[in-house]
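BUG: 3D viewer hangs when loading the predicted structure for this chain

Environment: internal workstation, default settings.
Expected: structure renders.
Actual: progress bar stalls at 90%.

Input used:
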Amino acid sequence: MKQSNMPHLEILGSPIGDTIFCANVVSQKCAQASQLLSQIEEVGSVDPQVALLLLRMCGAFCKMVHLARSTPPSLVAEGFRVILGSQQHLLQSIDDFNHCIPPSKAISFESLTNTPSSQKALSGELEDELFRQLLSKSSVPDRARLLSVSSPHASAWLSVVPSPGLNLHLEPAEFQAAIQWWLGIGVAHGSLCPHCPHSLDPLGHHALTCKHGGDVVNRHNRLRDVFAESCRRACIGVQVEAGSGLGRDEHHTRPADVLATNWMLGKPAAFDFAVTSPLNSSTLHEASVTAGSAAHATEVRKHQANDVKCAELGWVSIPVVVETYGCWGTEAKWALSQLASRLAMRLNSPKSTTTASLYGRLSITLVRANVRALLSRAISLDGF
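Structure tokens produced before the viewer hung:
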């Protein structure tokens, strides 16, 4: 507790006192936040991945939200009005929002400080409306991209602790390329792919699906290995690339990229990994309407290819499919949830922690492989 001249107090960063005292505290904290942002900007010139995590986790926004939530609006309204008065983009966003909703739901600056509506609810309404606007103005490929990147766990790579020792760090050039590709900023200018005669496209679709150059196989194998290692940590026996040449037919296929010998109720499970793109022509229309459509279509194909052989071997067939932008298939999410539960019991950790860690590790592995495929084709990085 920080004590000032009575009756003014500051407890856990929140002012208690008259309007002038509270306004001064708001002003001081805004000045501190401005200094922090300048320091984060300096970090960004060296390591943008670390800088973005600092900005999201301990930057100015979360500090000001805490202050707004823990202090009566009547005491800090004037201080926030002064600070927000210079934030014309925020006020313009409110005006834009009001033009897109019924008059009964319109908001104003006064309503932000005087109504008891939660900040979470208000932010949700703003973000949902802005996302709907963005979708309505986007092309079909961009809609497919936006739905995929906004799906659960797709952005887990942005929240991992960027530790080189844990292989969770991206080099500055990789991280910059990842952000540019993730935001849909043009990453190619019609040049030819150096590994095949096809042209590169602005969203990087060809670079991430090109069968030449080894990038597709490398991405698949790295995701497989991360999953297999996580199974071992959960004390689940695994075999990698199991089942080659087995079964009654003559086809030398591998129905199990990872075979978990004691998955559930003592029955082995064959996990077949695949990365698909929502921008594939065969699923583009569906992917631009419903998130995960491309992953679902691939799950269906995997079952058609593997179910008979797995049944002959006494295995359960489980396709683990993820889209290039990180949207996981339904069966993949179920499998990862089960694995996270086993990890939680083994490590004596909350399941929420093991779930975040598992998705984070897989997500950063996926994005790193994608970005290296982009960079290997000499994709330009305009804007960085």
